[in-house]
Amino acid sequence: MIVILNDKRHEVAEGTTLASFIDGLGIKPNGVAVAIYYEVIPKERWEDTVLYDGVEIMLITAVSGG
Amino acid sequence: MKKLVIAGREFESRLFLGTGKFSSNEVMAEAIRASGTQMVTAAMKRLDMENKQDDMLRHITMPGIQLLPNTSGVRNAKEAVFAAKLARDAFETNWLKLEIHPDPRYLLPDPVETLKATEELAKEGFIVLPYIQADPVLCKLLESAGTAAVMPLGAPIGTNKGLVTREMLQIIIGQSNVPVVVDAGIGAPSHAAEAMEIGADAVLVNTAIAVAGDPVAMANAFRMSVEAGRMAYEARLASKLDVAEASSPLTSFLM
């Protein structure tokens, strides 16, 4: 199935969790946050969040700023 | 010197540091150490998979330093509340620099949306430090909304013009029941000292340090000026007069 992360399409297996998807991309969870349709999914829920076909995920990361 | 207290947390340093515009994360970390700051801002952006994940967080995570994520990039209260929740998860803190500036030319904060967002975020348990116009009326409204501090601007972000809003800042400081942090526009240590001398509780500096010829030395200079300004405020400045008042005896022993 296809999931969309920050407007880019990714092919993943059925039943993939948010935690394993992010881990598979090599993204370190420290300093990042995820929202699905503008609902923030706290890190403690990543394991239990199963992705589905077409889901749009936003992932933000810490950057420098004043 | 008296310690600064915001939302029950004590700060010995009254200099807050922004992390934008440094030439490298290493220079930024060194400037943070030289400044003696205990409050450091950070921002967020969508991760671009083509670029490596920025490891700036590792460079600003130091003992005794409070992270202050900002909401830069949002245009209204609704987006700010969403950004705040992202920040809380990304940075593992409920401290927040609320900034809503939809206008890209002057980056001036939207007071209506800022007030709305402060009300909502304070109810949700965030420690809100809003970046605002130097507007004394707005500051009182933010206090009622549950703000932890107010952060009025000295001049527009990154302009280095100093305390253009000095008269309004003095009114804000005179009547505020929450700490007043002068944010934006501070371009030189003398500006920071001036803000502290008129009774500001702290200053937030970024551009003036980050783009200086030697950011680490400049961070040190700001540390000293903030301390000097605060010390002068606590020592109570002598008042201004319109006519001369001799500081030496005026006995006429020469004639």
Write the layout of secondary structure elements.
The complex is a heterodimer of chains A (66) and B (255).
Chain A: E1 2-5, E2 8-11, H1 18-24, E3 32-36, E4 39-40, E5 56-63
Parallel strand pairs in A: 1-5
Antiparallel strand pairs in A: 1-2, 3-4, 3-5
Chain B: E1 4-6, E2 9-11, E3 15-17, H1 25-35, E4 39-46, H2 56-60, E5 66-69, H3 77-91, E6 95-98, H4 111-123, E7 127-132, H5 136-145, E8 151-152, H6 166-175, E9 181-183, H7 189-197, E10 202-205, H8 207-210, H9 215-235
Parallel strand pairs in B: 3-10, 4-5, 6-7, 7-8, 9-10
Antiparallel strand pairs in B: 1-2
Helix pairs in contact in B: 1-9, 3-4, 4-5, 5-6, 7-9
Shape assignment of chain B: globular
CATH class of chain A: Alpha Beta
- Across the major sheet of chain A, the strand order is 2-1-5-3-4
Q: What proportion of the residues of chain B is helical, as a percent range?
A: 25-40%
What is the N-to-C order of secondary-structure elements of chain B (H for helix, E for strand)? EEEHEHEHEHEHEHEHEHH
Largest sheet composition of chain B: 3 strands, parallel
How many individual helices of chain A?
Answer: 1
N- and C-termini, Cα separation of chain A: 40 Å
CA radius of gyration of chain B: 20 Å
